[in-house]
Design a protein that fits this description.
By secondary structure, the protein is α/β, with parallel strands linked by helices. It has 2 domains: 164 residues, D-Maltodextrin-Binding Protein, domain 2 (3-Layer(aba) Sandwich); 117 residues, Periplasmic binding protein-like II (D-Maltodextrin-Binding Protein, domain 2). The chain has 11 helices and 10 strands. Strands 1, 2, 3, 4, 5, 6, 7, 8, 9 and 10 form a 10-stranded mixed β-sheet that branches. Helix 2 packs across helix 9 and helix 4 crosses helix 11. The longest helix is centred in the N-terminal third of the chain and has 28 residues. It is globular and about 65 Å long.
């Protein structure tokens, strides 16, 4: 083939390649041209739904299109997450994801109808929600070290409640049990509220829960907060030190919530959504609203950074599940 002929062929191939990419590029540049739905795999009114609606409202302003929250609740957030995994990768269907959907479920279920790695592109984290360790006032411990000493003096006699086996609260309790080297007994309930009622009634001694649940009882003196599980103190509980501050350096456990898109979504769209999320999370009113719920705003530096955070979190949860001997369903 002559040199001129080779150039001609290469030119045709290059033109075909550009033509093939053109629709995607143009669509990404014009995005968004219609409303976006954000699927929340939990019921309306909960903490995840609260995060979704706060972020969606402010992202709508930046995108120039409404971001509508759709609640698709189901066991462990699986049904709603599956919907997004199988949606068109065009940026118009997004998922609210978190520790349960992407870090815990892979270890707790033998078979999921979605692959948390292959089926999604993480966009950005929105918040981290540290937990708080609370005890019934009858427990003779005023701080974490005193609780550990009490538990060691009474092996198998200190009970902690959770919202069920494999639930976030259970995993936090198992991590504390392991790091503190104590023998405490897990008591699973059908929900955090039921566990809290028994804690208030003195039927269990302690609980590690999302701050919003026991906050009113802490403020009323009906429960004693000994420590929080984040890397820094919470604005809503400034006088409660972190567990890491109290003799367990490096101790950290926080539920994370963020947004992801179906795999295959064009990178320009992912980058636009990331930029708008970061902008939304910088809103002072939004930050104040989250702080009142014991949540810390944690925008990811990039989609890749959020993907790494999820991977690290998944590995950590896997270690806790194995150490606790929790068997997948």
């Amino acid at each position: 083939m002559s040199f001129v002929r080779q150039l001609s062929v290469l030119g045709v191939v290059a033109t075909m390649g550009v033509a093939a990419l053109a629709p995607t590029t143009v669509a990404a540049q014009a995005y968004p041209t219609k409303p976006i739905r954000l699927v929340v795999p939990y019921t309306a009114g909960g903490s995840s739904d609260f995060v979704a609606r706060q972020v969606a409202q402010r992202m709508s302003e930046g995108l120039g299109q409404s971001v509508t929250v759709e609640n698709k609740p189901g066991v462990a957030g699986i049904p709603g997450t599956e919907i997004v995994a199988h949606s068109a990768p065009d940026g118009y269907t997004l998922a609210l994801i978190g520790m349960t959907t992407h870090s815990s479920n892979p270890w707790l279920y033998k078979k999921l109808p979605y692959d948390p790695i292959k089926d999604f592109i993480p966009i950005s984290a929105a918040i981290a929600s540290p937990l708080v360790l609370v005890v019934n006032p009858e427990v003779p411990a005023k701080n974490v070290q005193e609780l550990i000493a009490y538990a060691k003096a009474n092996p198998g006699k200190v009970h902690y409640g959770s919202a069920g086996v494999g639930n976030t609260l259970h995993l936090a309790g198992e991590l504390f049990k392991s790091r503190a080297g104590i023998d405490i007994v897990h008591v699973p309930y059908k929900g955090a509220s039921a566990a809290l009622n028994d804690l208030l009634g003195g039927r269990i001694e302690m609980m590690i829960d999302l701050v919003q649940t026991p906050l009113a009882h802490i403020q009323a003196g009906k429960l004693r907060a000994l420590g929080t599980t984040g890397t820094q103190r919470l604005a809503i509980l400034p006088d409660v030190p972190t567990i890491a501050e109290q003799g367990l350096p490096g101790f950290q456990f926080a539920t994370t919530i963020g947004i992801a898109a179906p795999a295959g979504t064009p990178k320009p769209i992912i980058d636009r959504l990331h930029a708008e999320m970061v902008k939304a999370l910088a809103n002072p009113e939004l930050q104040a609203a989250f702080a009142k719920q014991g949540m810390q705003v944690t925008p990811s530096a990039s989609p890749e950074a959020y993907a790494k955070l999820i991977a690290d979190e998944r590995a950590k949860i896997g270690e806790i599940v194995k150490s606790a001997g929790i068997q997948p369903e």
